[in-house]
């Protein structure tokens, strides 16, 4: 099995220079961080037809845009570049069952593949029924490559 380092992959995507990248955070007050392939008209193009301005951070080499511009930015970036990386938070869902968590013995047929077998359950699990429980892991960042249809 190949190991995958999500942080290294996100860093690689952020630092590549051929496909635009936007980082969207859920945190209150955070803005969009955008990297674009160089073009002399990037400042004008990024305005997205609005009066409100955006900011270039020369030391960091990225743009800062209002979070409310996300959908418009994605649409325009796909139209102009054909591709766009979106780096955004996500929370992975785990699925298991109280019957598995409270099991005795080693036989497990649950979708957790035995990871929670016989552990006693609890610990953040939301029991939907005797045969289904879910919990959400902590927030992490993931990337997706969007392409123009």
Domains (count)? 2
- Overall morphology: elongated
Per DSSP, what share of the residues sits in E-state strands of 2 or more residues?
A: 25-35%
Structural class estimated from helices and strands: alpha+beta
N-to-C terminal Cα separation, in Å? 33 Å
Helical run tally: 4
Could you tell me the mean pLDDT?
Answer: 80
Radius of gyration: 21 Å
Number of strands: 9
What profile does the largest beta sheet have? 6 strands, mixed
Task: Characterise the protein shown here.
With 149 residues, the protein is an alpha+beta fold. It folds into 2 domains: 6-90; 93-136, no CATH class. It has helices at residues 6-15, 42-46, 70-81, 98-101, and strands spanning 21-23, 32-35, 55-57, 62-65, 83-90, 93-96, 126-129, 132-136, 140-147. The strands form 2 sheets. It has a 6-stranded mixed β-sheet, sandwiched between helices.
Name its key features.
alpha+beta, six-stranded mixed sheet, three-stranded antiparallel sheet
Summarize the helices and strands and which ones pair or pack:
Elements: H1 6-15, E1 21-23, E2 32-35, H2 42-46, E3 55-57, E4 62-65, H3 70-81, E5 83-90, E6 93-96, H4 98-101, E7 126-129, E8 132-136, E9 140-147
Parallel strand pairs: 1-5
Antiparallel strand pairs: 1-2, 2-4, 3-4, 5-9, 6-8, 7-8
Summarize the structure.
The protein has 149 residues and is α+β, with helices and mostly antiparallel strands. The protein has helices at 6-15, 42-46, 70-81, 98-101, and strands spanning 21-23, 32-35, 55-57, 62-65, 83-90, 93-96, 126-129, 132-136, 140-147. Strand 1 and strand 2 form a beta hairpin.
């Amino acid at each position: 099995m190949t190991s995958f380092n999500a942080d290294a992959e996100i860093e690689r995507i952020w630092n590549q220079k051929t496909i635009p990248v936007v980082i969207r955070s859920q945190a209150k007050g955070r803005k969009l961080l955008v990297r674009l392939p160089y073009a002399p008209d990037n400042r004008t193009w990024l305005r997205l037809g609005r009066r409100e301005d955006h900011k270039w951070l020369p030391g960091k080499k990225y743009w800062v845009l209002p979070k409310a511009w996300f959908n418009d930015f994605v649409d325009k970036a796909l139209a102009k570049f054909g591709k766009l990386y979106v780096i955004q938070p996500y929370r992975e869902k785990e699925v298991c069952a109280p019957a598995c968590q409270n099991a005795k013995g080693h036989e497990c047929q649950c979708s957790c593949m035995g990871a929670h077998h016989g552990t006693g359950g609890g610990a953040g699990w939301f029991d939907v029924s005797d045969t289904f429980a879910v919990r959400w892991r902590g927030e992490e960042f993931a990337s997706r490559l969007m392409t123009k249809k």
